[in-house]
Amino acid sequence: MSPLPPLKALQAFDALGRTGSLARAAADLGVTPGAIGQQLRKLEEAVKARLVEHDGRALRLTPLGATYHAQVRQGFAAFADAAATLRDANADIIVLSCLTTVLGKWIGRRMRDWTELDAQARISLVGSDAEPDLAQGGADLRIYYGGRLHPPHRTELFTDHIVPVCAPALIAGQRLSGPAEILRFPLLHIAWNPRFGANPGWAEWGRLIGAKPPPANLTYGLSGSAIDAALAGQGVVLGQLAFIGPELESGRLVIPFDLRLPLPEPYYLAWNPDSLKKPGARAFHRWLLGEGRAQGLASAPPL
After folding, report:
1. N-terminal to C-terminal alpha carbon distance within the chain
2. Coiled-coil regions in this chain (predicted)?
3. Do 184 and 244 belong together in one domain?
4. Number of domains making up the chain
């Protein structure tokens, strides 16, 4: 089987056939006429046939070149049809971007509730710590933390709280006379990305109870990783309540003393207004806001 001609050479040849002029072909592709001529020579070398000829100062297709161009044109038309098919297939997909742990430990766990409400809407969940440009189609909606970003269309979703949690086996058989007793167990620390600001840790929780915690035994860069370590019995972590609901319900994690600290800033939901025109997008937007309100109530200290 003969190798396929270079794609750039075929594009230059197609442009010449469509526009009928070397200069117009160059303008169509945004290159110089010399670059078009070079690609045409590469194409003729690849197919071992004369496809273009000079007609005075102009360049035109040979009869064989015209026949070949008709087939090449069909090929590029097929490429365009394939691209349109992909665009149409993705046109109705609602892309929700979230911080990695927010996706894995919070909203991703709730999506079954959404699908039971509206199975027709097509949702794509993307976990990323990079903030997408909603205006340029980077995503349709974004759940993010803190107020440093100010998208034109956003609303507060909920404020989360942290609380000390651990695997029940870690404190089994131990008599804890007060909150300060927690500090004698291995402490797991979460070091946030500096762009999110300072997160409350063991020092702040210690001030809440009037004690000075020792240095943390292990430090993690992601809240989800620290929570997983607590699940494995490695120590006590100040876990965000939004991220540990199922583990508390199942008893895989327990709260020795329910003394909660709020995060310094809330989570927000931002969106591209044009994206709300997608099928099911407005309903999904309302559902996300409802889930945020419910989480805010669940995370707040008990009355």
Report:
1. 77
2. none
3. yes
4. 3
Distance CA 115, CA 167 (A): 31
What stretch of H or E contains 122? strand 122-127
The whole-angstrom separation of Cα 13 and Cα 25 is 9
pTM to 2 decimal places:
0.70
Q: Can you give the CATH number for the domain in which 255 is found?
A: 3.40.190.10
Express each pLDDT in 205-214 by its tens digit. Answer: 999 999 999 9
Residue 145, H or E segment: strand 141-145
Could you tell me if residue 50 is inside a domain? yes
What pLDDT digit, counting tens, does each position of 208-264 carry? 999 999 988 899 888 999 999 999 999 999 999 999 999 999 999 999 999 999 999
Domain that residue 84 falls in: 7-90
Q: Is residue 2 in some structural domain?
A: no
Percent composition of the chain: helix, strand, coil (DSSP 3-state, to 5):
50, 20, 30
CA gyration radius for the chain? 30
Write the pLDDT tens digit of every residue in 32-84.
988 888 988 998 898 898 988 887 777 888 888 888 888 888 887 777 656 55
